[in-house]
Amino acid sequence: MDTRIPLSPTSGPAPDTISISNLNLSLGSGAARVHILKDISLRVAEGEAIGLIGPSGSGKSTLLMVMAGLERPDSGEVVVDGTAFNGLDEDALARFRGRRIGIVFQSFHLIPTMTALENVAVPLELAGDPDAARRAAQELQAVGLGERLHHYPTQLSGGEQQRVALARALAPDPAILVADEPTGNLDESTGKQIVDLLFAKHAERGMTLVLVTHDTGLAQRCDRVIRLRSGRIDATQPGTAARASA
Ligand SMILES: Nc1ncnc2c1ncn2[C@@H]1O[C@H](COP(=O)(O)OP(=O)(O)OP(=O)(O)O)[C@@H](O)[C@H]1O
Ligand SMILES: [Mg+2]
What we know:
Blueprint: E1 16-27, E2 34-45, E3 49-53, H1 60-67, E4 75-80, E5 83-84, H2 90-100, E6 101-104, H3 116-126, H4 132-142, H5 158-170, E7 176-180, H6 188-205, E8 208-212, H7 216-219, E9 224-229, E10 232-238, H8 240-245
Helix pairs in contact: 3-4, 3-5, 4-5, 5-6
Bound molecules: adenosine-5'-triphosphate and magnesium ion.
Residues 60-61, 180 line the site of magnesium ion (MG).
C-alpha cells in the first residue's frame, strides 16, 4: 500500500512559487550602508506573471536578485519552490538557481569568447546534461537563431544577443524566469519581439515570470503589477492578463 502523503493538493489555488516574508536588505558598508528593501512581503503563484515597476533606485533589481538568491537579506525569509534560501550555503544556492531559475539581464551578460551555442550550452553542461550541445541548438532555433549558432556575441545585433540570453535562461527549463529590463537596450520593435517571445515561452511552459520594466504598458501584460517606491511595495494592481482571464 502506498502510504505517502501527497505533497501538493490536487485542487484549489496554485501553490506559491515565490514567497517573501518581512524582508529587509541593506547594501554597502559603514557610512555608505543603505537600507534598500524595507519590509517586503510578496507571494507569487505558480505560473503567474508579475510586472515589477517603480522609479529608478526604488529597489526593483535588488528584489529580483533576492528572488534569484544572488543577494541575501538582512532579515526575513525567501522561499522558492518550497526551498528556504536561508538554509542553503552558497554552493547549494548556486545549484538550486542553476536548475530552477532563469535570469535575463538588461545588458545580456553573454560570455564574449564563446559562440551563441557555447553560451547556451554552458549552464546545461554545468548541470551535467550529456546532451547539452543538441539542447542548446534547439533552444536557439526556438528563438529564431538557428542560423547563428556559431556566431560570437560581437557578431550579433543587440536583439540577437538578447535572444541568445533568453535561450540560455530557458535551456535548463526553469520553473521561474526573472528578467531585469530585458528590452532596455533594444529599439522598440526589437524589444517587442523579445517581449512577445518571453510571454510566448511563459504561456507555453507554464513558467512563473517576474519582469522588471520601466514600461507600464509592458507590465500591464502581466497578471499582476507591483510598484515599488523607496524600497517598499507601494501598490499592487491586476494586469490585463488577469482581467482577460477573470
Ligand atoms: N552595492 C550597493 N551598495 C549600496 N547601495 C546600492 C548597491 N546596489 C544598489 N544600491 C542602491 O540601492 C537602491 C536600489 O537599487 P536598484 O538597482 O535595486 O534600483 P532599481 O529600482 O533597479 O533602479 P533602476 O530602475 O535604475 O534600475 C539604489 O538607491 C542604489 O543606489
Ligand atoms: Mg534596476
